[in-house]
Amino acid sequence: MNIEEFREYCLVKPGVTEETPFGIDTLVFKVGGKIFALTDINTFASINLKCDPEKAVELRERYDAIKPGYHMNKKHWNTVMLAGTINDRLLRELIDHSYSLVAASLPKNIKSHLGL
């Protein structure tokens, strides 16, 4: 998956916005104002994704390319190294999981407004 495919995959999800709140080098995707994915625009070497804590540990043990979230809460975030053993199908599943976790945590009125 390249950065354009990543962007397109994130942006087709309901209620997603694309922002650069940490500077022009960090591309951030949010749903309902909450981050579910971020990456470095220049290198696109890794993606930070939200993850269920138990699943996060399991993924880190199973895949060398999945590490505790860089500059994030390591209990709830993983950094997925794209040069590793992660194929596009798994990466899409991890993005979906992150999006779903964040969308599910939104207040009812925001979910309703976004059509979730």
Task: Describe the model.
There is one protein chain. The protein is α+β, with helices and mostly antiparallel strands. The protein has a single domain (3-109), classed as Alpha-Beta Complex (Aspartate Aminotransferase, domain 1). The chain is 37% helix and 26% strand. It has helices at 3-11, 53-62, 88-104, 108-114, and strands spanning 16-19, 26-31, 34-40, 46-50, 66-68, 77-81. Strands 1-2-3-4-6-5 form a six-stranded antiparallel β-sheet, with helices on one face. The relative contact order is 0.19.
Protein topology:
Elements: H1 3-11, E1 16-19, E2 26-31, E3 34-40, E4 46-50, H2 53-62, E5 66-68, E6 77-81, H3 88-104, H4 108-114
Round the mean pLDDT to the nearest integer and report it.
93
Oligomer: single chain
Order of secondary-structure elements: HEEEEHEEHH
- The whole-angstrom Rg is 13 Å
Strands across the major sheet, in which order? Answer: 1-2-3-4-6-5
Q: Name the CATH class.
A: Alpha Beta
Shape: globular
Q: Which residues form runs of ≥5 with pLDDT under 50? A: none
- The number of E-state strands comes to 6
Domains (count):
1
Strand content: 25-35%
What is the helix fraction of residues, given as a range? 25-40%
What is the count of helical runs?
4
The CATH architecture can be named as: Alpha-Beta Complex
Structural class: alpha+beta
Whole-Å distance between the termini?
Answer: 26 Å
Q: Main beta sheet, described?
A: 6 strands, antiparallel
What name does CATH use for the topology?
Answer: Aspartate Aminotransferase, domain 1
